[in-house]
């Protein structure tokens, strides 16, 4: 079994924010169809299943994402965990893949690391870099502009294809094939 958790914040007011790009990717994957929603409050998230694939959208708010990931991990004991999250150190549209490593200051990743360790795969989606004097929390909780949403509409299907390949492959191969270091203009 493989668990893919897309990080974000519940509530409609956060739906179009940079911090919710993980939720957006899960929604993109769900468009392929065939997933059943597994209703259980013990997972503290929206959980979907198709064959041996689990998709999770934690409903704990970003800073407590680890609670939901741990609950699903403890119950299903997946062989692999893939976390999809926003990265403000990457240009909008950049995509990187890694296993383990530091949280880079991302509170959702810190929460997961604290509860299950850092031995999981990560898909980092660039949401743009904040201005030097800009508060990071305000930046990630800010909405995408119209032009940014258009670019996101192009990158999310691309990342969904990468994740689909990641399910059947290893992260090094997927990283070589799908990494986008700089945003394409």
From TrEMBL:
Listed InterPro entries: Pept_tRNA_hydro (IPR001328), Pept_tRNA_hydro_CS (IPR018171), Pept_tRNA_hydro_sf (IPR036416)
Function, as annotated: Hydrolyzes ribosome-free peptidyl-tRNAs (with 1 or more amino acids incorporated), which drop off the ribosome during protein synthesis, or as a result of ribosome stalling. Catalyzes the release of premature peptidyl moieties from peptidyl-tRNA molecules trapped in stalled 50S ribosomal subunits, and thus maintains levels of free tRNAs and 50S ribosomes.
Name of the protein in its database record: Peptidyl-tRNA hydrolase
Organism classification: Bacteria, Pseudomonadati, Campylobacterota, Epsilonproteobacteria, Campylobacterales
Residues of the active site: 19 (proton acceptor)
Chief location of this protein within or outside the cell: cytoplasm
Gene transcribed to yield this protein: pth
Segments crossing the lipid bilayer: none
Chain sites annotated for binding tRNA: 14, 61, 63, 107
Subunit-structure text: Monomer.
Entry's Gene Ontology cellular component terms: cytoplasm
């Amino acid at each position: 079994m493989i668990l893919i958790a897309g990080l974000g914040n519940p509530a409609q007011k956060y739906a179009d924010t940079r911090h919710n790009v993980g939720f957006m990717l899960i929604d993109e994957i769900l468009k392929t169809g065939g997933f059943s929603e597994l209703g259980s409050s013990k997972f503290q998230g929206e959980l979907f299943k198709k064959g041996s694939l689990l998709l999770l959208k934690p409903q704990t708010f970003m800073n407590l994402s680890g609670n939901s990931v741990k609950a699903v991990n403890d119950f299903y004991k997946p062989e692999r965990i893939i976390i999809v999250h926003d990265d403000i150190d990457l240009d909008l549209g950049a995509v990187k893949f890694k296993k383990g490593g530091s949280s880079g200051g991302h509170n959702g990743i810190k929460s997961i690391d604290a509860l299950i360790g850092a031995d999981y795969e990560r898909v980092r989606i660039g949401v743009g870099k904040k201005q030097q004097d800009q508060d990071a929390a305000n930046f990630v909780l800010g909405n995408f502009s119209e032009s940014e949403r258009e670019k996101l509409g192009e990158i999310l299907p691309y990342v969904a294809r990468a994740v689909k390949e990641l399910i059947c492959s290893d992260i090094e191969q997927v990283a070589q094939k799908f990494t986008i270091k700089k945003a394409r203009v």
